[in-house]
Write a structure and sequence with these properties.
With 92 residues, the chain is an alpha+beta fold. It is built from two helices and five strands, in the order E-H-E-E-E-E-H. The longest helix has 17 residues.
């Protein structure tokens, strides 16, 4: 499996971190993923991918495994993820 690993520092408050994870959970469910919310961490799986995302004080991390069909899109997916992170985690 191809993997995407993400790590980004942030300055979000507890409330902002919770909102960011809730937004991500909603998005993942909209694209058909099964999501388990574990407080500061989400685990998810869908057709051709699975992973975890955690947003703790000061740090957002994600680990995503891509199946065979998603591998050709790894570069595009990484770019989209980083662009979204920059917009969502940027200081106000």
């Amino acid at each position: 499996m191809s993997k995407i690993e993400i790590s980004r520092h942030h300055q979000l408050s507890d409330q902002e971190r919770t909102a960011a994870l809730n937004d991500l959970a909603t998005f993942l469910q909209e694209i058909g993923a099964e999501v388990v919310n574990e407080g500061e961490r989400l685990s998810f799986s869908g057709r051709g991918y699975k992973g975890t995302v955690s947003v703790t004080a000061g740090l957002a991390e994600g680990f995503i495994s891509l199946g065979l069909l998603a591998r050709p899109f790894k570069g595009q997916l990484e770019k989209a993820i980083y662009e979204h992170l920059e917009a969502r985690l940027a200081a106000p």
